[in-house]
Design goal:
The chain folds into three domains: 3-65, no CATH class; 68-212, Beta Polymerase, domain 2; 216-366, Hypothetical protein af1432 (Orthogonal Bundle). Helices cover 53% and strands 11% of the residues. It contains 17 helices and six strands. It has helices at residues 3-19, 26-38, 50-65, 67-86, 97-100, 118-127, 187-197, 203-212, 216-224, 242-256, 261-269, 281-289, 295-302, 304-312, 317-325, 329-341, 352-366; strands spanning 93-95, 109-114, 132-141, 144-154, 158-164, 184-185. Strands 3-4-5-2-1-6 form a six-stranded mixed beta sheet. The longest helix is centred in the N-terminal third of the chain and has 20 residues, at 67-86.
Length: 371
């Protein structure tokens, strides 16, 4: 077998490993692929380059995902462009698969930002309606310990920001595996790249469209998070704040109908209006949620207080008959039961982030929500 043929086969096998997420590093994928192809040692000079492997990843993605992968890459790049623009004052640099073009299932948008305060970056994100989680990761390299600060954003696409001190702005970042400088692009450089790769695309219009696309889970997060400061009457809610209660109700709903996204959303969002208008929290909550929920979820939230009145016998006959005639009446009674059960002090609950993560996953898997 010729060297070029071996190189091509190694590139293909390495791409398969990366695409299937059996490996995440190019070097490890190359070495494993080389052992598979040659059944032994391969000269480093005979190994394919990262660019060659990326080309094979694109071929694999096209074979398995067709035009959807191409469209997804373009959408993720437009979102990356918007993110770079929002964070301009932190000298952001796009890195990773969205830049290079070899995205696969689960890929995120990776950006380096430079700030001496990670909270200033978080504040800027929240100003634009993006809520993040801070992760501090300690890594030992060359006998030296370094703490890296990552901000994770759960949006239309997963985003990871790595926050470095401003003194690192001119630093050359290298791969821990190859020792070579990693590819990265500033806002201006990325704009030029997109203009070259998508000559017929109106970047200004595409970015404006991306900015107007509301990620409903970010909206839910922004409505639910403040509820941990909204206290309730201890007579009816001895458990305390509204968020704690909502998460308890969600957990009970998970025990009943773990794959019913619409029902689970109703359980989690039924009291969001208490942070807006406690006098009429149902109407206030539904108005804030808008058209980001299905009619069935809306109906369950709209009538969850009627369900309590039905159970305690204070609901009128006509209203009771209307509820009983609805196709989701049984789920409404189940929601009422979960709502009543979610009023216990001191119990451990799912975190808000994990609850929304779960809902996002089942939404992606079962496509219950139709945009």
């Amino acid at each position: 077998m010729t060297v070029s043929k071996v190189r091509q086969q190694i590139a293909w096998q390495a791409a398969r490993l990366l695409y299937a997420r059996e490996e995440s590093e190019y070097y490890r994928a190359k070495m494993k692929a080389a052992r598979y192809v040659q059944k032994g040692w391969v000269k480093p000079a005979d190994l394919p380059s990262n660019a060659e492997i990326r080309d094979q990843v694109r071929i694999l993605a096209h074979l398995h995902e067709g035009e959807r992968c191409t469209d997804l890459l373009r959408e993720m790049r437009i979102e990356g462009l918007r993110l770079l623009r929002l964070l301009q004052r932190f000298s952001p640099k796009l890195i990773g698969s969205v830049l290079t073009g070899h995205i696969r299932q689960g890929s995120d948008i990776d950006v380096h930002v430079f700030a001496d305060s990670v909270e200033s970056v978080r504040a800027e994100l929240e100003y634009h309606g993006l809520f993040s989680e801070l992760e501090r990761k300690r890594v030992v390299k060359g006998g030296q310990s370094q703490v890296y600060q990552h901000l994770h954003i759960r949006d239309r696409f997963p985003i990871e920001l790595t926050v470095y001190p401003t003194k690192w702005l001119r630093h050359t970042f290298t791969s821990s595996i190859t020792g070579k400088a990693i590819e990265r692009a500033s806002l201006a450089e990325f704009e030029q790249r997109l203009a070259h790769e998508y000559p017929d695309l109106d970047l200004v219009a595409a970015e404006a469209e991306a900015a107007s696309a509301v990620d409903r889970f970010q909206l839910f997060y922004s409505l639910l998070l403040p509820l941990d400061d909204v206290q309730q009457s201890p007579r009816y809610h001895p458990e305390g704040d509204v968020l704690y209660h909502s998460l308890q109700v969600f957990d009970h709903a998970m025990d009943q109908l773990p794959y019913d996204e619409e029902f689970l959303l109703a359980a989690l969002l039924h009291d969001v209006g208490k942070g807006i208008d406690p006098q009429d929290h149902v109407a206030a909550g539904l108005e804030a949620i808008g058209d980001t929920i299905t009619p069935r979820t809306r109906w369950l939230i709209q009538h969850h207080m009627d369900a309590h009145r039905l159970v305690d016998g204070s609901l009128g006959r006509r209203a009771r008959l209307r509820l009983q005639a609805h196709e989701s009446f049984e789920e409404l009674l189940l929601l009422q039961s979960c709502d009543r059960a979610g009023r216990v002090s001191g119990v451990e609950t799912t975190s808000l982030e994990d609850a929304l993560d779960y809902l996002r996953q089942i939404s992606d898997q079962f496509s219950l929500w139709k945009a």
